[in-house]
Amino acid sequence: MPFRDNYVIDPGAATWAVPQNFDARFNWDYDDGRAAMMGLYRKGVEMQWNAETRIDWSQDLDEDNPQQLPEAMLPISGMAQYEAMSRRDKARVRKHFQAWNLSQFMQGEQGALICAAKIVTQVPDMDSKFYASTQVIDEARHVEAYNRLLRKFGVAYPITAPLQELIDQVLRDSRWDMTYLGMQVVIEGLALAAFQQVRDNAQNPLAAAVNAYVMQDESRHVAFGRLALRDYYPHLSQAERDEREEFLLEACYLMRDRFDAVEVWRTLGLDPAACAAHMYDSGYMQQFRSALFTRIVPIVKDIGLWGDTIREGYTEMGIIGLADVDVQALQDSDEDIARQFDARRAYVASVADRAKAMEPA
Ligand SMILES: [Fe+2]
Ligand SMILES: [Fe+2]
Fold it and tell me: Cα(110) to centroid of ligand 1, in Å?
């Protein structure tokens, strides 16, 4: 079935064109590059994987609760109108909300694919071009994996306006570091937090595995943004850094306040304002807001965009305390967890083999 038939809202034209105005840059100094950047490149090359074979796609989703997520992860759970629904209607709400969320993962991954390709073309340093080229194939694989998972829902949503606006802004900007800042720091950071919620809470093994494997790659992407920008920002003027801090704050507010799934509530005939009112104070949203910035705030501090503007803004948002989160520890744990999923699959396969060997011939 054509993918488009899964959309419950018409996404419009088949392609979206974002005008570009930047120089494609060559570099004739084939020097060795920075050791840390080349180390990341080597890791990117060595850790390639095939979504077709690493994941067991024969696994199914659950009919009532596709990714088998706790009810508390549905932002309108507890709302009177939802609680009064029949079992079938509740299942429909869960399916649509999860499909909306996953659709944003997939659409965002396409944004990451295009941004990574732009970085390859535009960034002046050869070692960064090398690394970013491994990210291009990573992002293609992520689009593939999320698309395969989403097809099992039979329901898909177009990219949500705030995400599209942010990607548009990041791609149009002719300064190479803005693509990094918007994509590698903000969107990747938010994505990691969102993927983690599914990885750590989904009882469905397929959904959990897809997110675990994607996260194994994403943590390298955030590390890349960090390496490249940490070297660059000290050379900018305070005014130039201020502009970037303002952009960061705006982007953080946009992702925090407008990622509200209003398309889902409208599609299902629920009152978006009533849903928003319920969501605002829900435990889900509180957890979402703090999880969201765990992966961003420490990076922002680390790359040296830590002037008054950003510190005041983050204090106001109540997230300044996240500045000292150990990002390296998070990254190491993302890699360990992905390996645990490999081990689990190998174990299940070995049990199946042994059971088969016991069958009478
Ligand atoms: Fe990705
Ligand atoms: Fe990424």
Answer: 8
Q: What is the pTM of this model?
A: 0.94
Residue 170 lies in a domain: yes
> What's the domain range around 208?
3-10+35-349
For 39-66, write each residue's pLDDT tens digit: 999 999 999 999 999 999 999 999 999 9
145-203 pLDDT, tens digit each: 999 999 999 999 999 999 999 999 999 999 989 998 999 899 988 889 899 999 999 99
Supply the CATH number for residue 286's domain: 1.10.620.20
Place of tokens 């899964």: 6
Please report which ligand is nearest the Cα atom of 225.
2
Q: Is residue 19 part of a domain?
A: no
How many Å apart are CA 190 and CA 130, to the nearest integer?
25
Sorted by sequence, the CB contacts under 8 Å of residue 82 that are 6+ apart come out as 74, 76, 90, 93
Q: Give me the number of domains the chain comprises.
A: 1
Distance 135 CA to ligand 1 centre (A): 8
SS3 52: helix
Which residues have a beta carbon within 5 Å of ligand 1, which is an ion?
109, 112, 139, 142
